[in-house]
Task: inverse folding
């Protein structure tokens, strides 16, 4: 299993910026993909952005151009730089990692989440 610990959430005014960080630790052979999801009250969890080990990225249409995902593979960390924040970005943000624990065993792990609140 892999433990994911997020940090960097908080309260910010619309138009402001926040940077989320997520550190992975535990039984890591290799991390295939790391990303960020979010869940707003009464809504389903949705992908915000992810980045694979080859450098390919995916972004939700709603954040493209405002958010940037990056990884430090040597440190098993993923970051989400969020600029031009909007009230609709308010949600709990979860870090996700798809990890090979051994050369044959893999799984998806989640962090506990960090609250991001954007006031208007």
Result:
């Amino acid at each position: 299993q892999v433990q994911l610990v997020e940090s960097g959430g908080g309260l910010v005014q619309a138009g402001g910026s926040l940077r989320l960080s997520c550190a992975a630790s535990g039984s890591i052979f290799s991390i295939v993909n790391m990303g960020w999801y979010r869940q707003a009250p009464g809504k389903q969890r949705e992908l915000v952005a992810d980045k694979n080990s080859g450098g390919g990225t995916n972004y939700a249409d709603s954040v493209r151009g405002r958010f940037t995902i990056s990884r430090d593979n040597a440190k098993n960390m993923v970051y989400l730089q969020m600029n031009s924040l909007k009230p609709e970005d308010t949600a709990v943000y979860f870090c996700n990692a798809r990890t090979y624990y051994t050369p044959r065993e893999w799984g998806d792990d989640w962090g506990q989440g960090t609250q991001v609140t954007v006031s208007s």
Q: What stands out?
A: The radius of gyration is 14 Å. DSSP finds no helices and eleven strands in the chain. The longest strand covers residues 30-39.
